[in-house]
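Marked as duplicate of an earlier ticket. Keeping the data here for the record.
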Amino acid sequence: MSLYRRLPTALPIAQAIEGAPALSHLSDLVKKSSAMLGDVRALIPPNLKVHGGPIQDQQWCLLVEGSAAAAKLRQLLPLLQSSLKRQGWPVEQIKIKVMGRSRG
């Protein structure tokens, strides 16, 4: 009899995500949001820090780091939305949310 108990082997994160339907769905949405942002990145001024956010039905959320960035991005919404539609993304509405600043 061994004094040491064998610990179970940890699953790689990708394998764990694929094995859980809810996590797999979330992973797919994150990839889709990143791809959509990549498809319109050239239309967004490089000094704006914009992150692809949640997707729900045909609504996509963009996350920005300040109200000035949100205001500028709101001006670009018609251009972003028409570009996404031309590229085949089924987006009917784009929302912009200002992320809270982390304190540290």
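See parent ticket for discussion. The chain has a mean pLDDT of 87.
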